[in-house]
Amino acid sequence: MLNIVVLLKQTFDTEEKIIVKDGAVAEADAKLVINPYDEYALEEALRQRELHGGEVRVVSCGGDRSEEALRTALAMGADEAIRLDSASVESEDSFALATALAKIIEPLKPDLLLAGLFAVDSGSGSVALQIAERLGLPHASAAVKLGIVGPDEAKASGELPPGAAAAARFAVVERDVEGDAETVVIPLPALITAQQGLNEPRYPSLPGIMKAKRKPLARVSAAAGGEDEGARTSRLALFPPAPRAAGRRLAGTPAEQASELVRLLQAEGQLPQ
């Protein structure tokens, strides 16, 4: 039996146009979805539960609207959901967010903590790793294949990390390493982040959607996890990029064009005088 926790974030649909209004991203009319990399993590959690038994919990930080993503995860097959109210934590700061989420996850005592490699909106990919650090969990990132095995199979799959021989179960993880792959073996409990190619996420079924309405969805605040350590970064401003200027064609010989290009770049401050 595996106690599995999945970190999940609701993000903009990748085809949505981002509009900045009054110093904030306008979300009211935007289509929001489960972060695609978190979908791979959730699908892997469901597959591992099918193989080994156990429970799958999804944990997210967000406002009321993020419950749409959690209900989708429950419809896909997760057993339980927990929403950390984003109004109770500096969710734009990865340090504060990881601290708050770690305090919620710690009492759940997961055997396996799964997350997406990164969120497509912020792209930092650091929150899950910071949670692993706070919980003292080993981790493997960018997984494209995952197996949960016993000690004998783990020894046959690769070199065990120091002090891991006493563990009852191990994760054998094939990682994407910039176009190549490597296999690592880590003891459970552990964190693993999912890369594209790990699996093909399933769609919620109609019975799953109906069952999701009756599955537990808990709502908690950061205060419930203890004293907040505070944010380490703050956003001073948010603004869209400047409109792209019209193209310009330079006339003359190649030497004259190069000279004019240098002059224009210097005039715009792109090159030193």
From TrEMBL:
Instruction: Give all residue intervals belonging to the Electron transfer flavoprotein alpha/beta-subunit N-terminal domain.
Output: 22-229
Q: Name one GO cellular component term.
A: cytosol
Q: Which InterPro entries match?
A: ET-Flavoprotein_bsu_CS (IPR000049), ETF_a/b_N (IPR014730), ETF_b (IPR012255), ETF_beta_N (IPR033948), Rossmann-like_a/b/a_fold (IPR014729)
Query: Which family would the database say this protein is a member of?
Result: Belongs to the ETF beta-subunit/FixA family.
What is this protein's record name? Electron transfer flavoprotein subunit beta
Q: SMART domains, per this entry?
A: ETF (SM00893)
Cofactor(s) for this protein? AMP
Summarize the protein's role: The electron transfer flavoprotein serves as a specific electron acceptor for other dehydrogenases. It transfers the electrons to the main respiratory chain via ETF-ubiquinone oxidoreductase (ETF dehydrogenase).
* Superkingdom of the source species: Bacteria
Keywords attached to this Swiss-Prot or TrEMBL record, sorted alphabetically, are: Electron transport, Transport
What Gene3D superfamilies does UniProt report for this protein, alphabetically? HUPs
Listed Pfam families: ETF
**What organism, scientifically named, is this protein from?**
Paenibacillus catalpae
**GO MF annotations, alphabetized:** electron transfer activity
